Amino acid sequence: MDEGETEEDIGGQAQGTGKIVLGVFGLLALLTCCGGGGYLGMSIYESESAGIVASYALAFPVGFSFAGLLGAVLGYFGLKSKGLQIALPIVLGFIVGIGCLAAVFVFFVTIFPAL
Known about the structure:
- By secondary structure, the protein is mainly α.
- It has one domain.
- Helix content is 88%, strand content 0%.
- The chain has three helices and no strands.
- Helix 1 packs antiparallel against helix 2, helix 1 packs parallel to helix 3 and helix 2 runs antiparallel to helix 3.
- The N and C termini lie far apart (61 Å).
């Protein structure tokens, strides 16, 4: 903390950072949902195999953007540190994105052929 800064100043800076991160991940989630949904819909309309490829391509971005948005909301309301408000959505997004990709892979390799 620099000389002359108070706790309110630092808290205000963290709140500003939290709003920016929340806006970025909110926009990313909106674009992923709209653009990815359109891409997936067009791919499924074209062929089943194109829909499967589109599902593989969209699994990580969808998981990343929505988990990042959740992390941004949690960081905005629950954390005071600017570093944690920035890091939480990114780390949570990567973890959930990889999990979504693994879940889609397991579904299409093991369950989908049996349907």
